[in-house]
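Posting for a labmate who doesn't have an account.
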Amino acid sequence: MDGTDVAEYEPMARIAISRAEIETARRRRWRTIRGGSGPDADVTPMHLRARVRLLVNPHEIPTIATGSCIEPKPCDICGRRMPAGCTEYEVGFSTLTVRIDAACFALWQEEMLRTAQR
């Protein structure tokens, strides 16, 4: 055996060992992380208001567009799915644009009014 055969064998052996390790890792059962919250766990009025307050900027007048939701997608505030055909609001600031459903838009309006009255 000359040195070229060994040089060709070593990379092939490394590949075979790597494949075996990958297969072993795939067969291993991983424990799931517990104690976390799902997407609906934070959808309480208090949490929604806190999220909405992050979008209230008293120093900038946002652009607001409304229309029918063409494809189902989640609301950027509450995370609930907006079905096709429902009213969708697009609130645009200079650095951020959010798409929200009617209930979250009403909360956003309340917080904007509350901030303006202060």
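Reply:
Got it, the structure tokens are right above this. The first strand starts at residue 63 and ends at 68.
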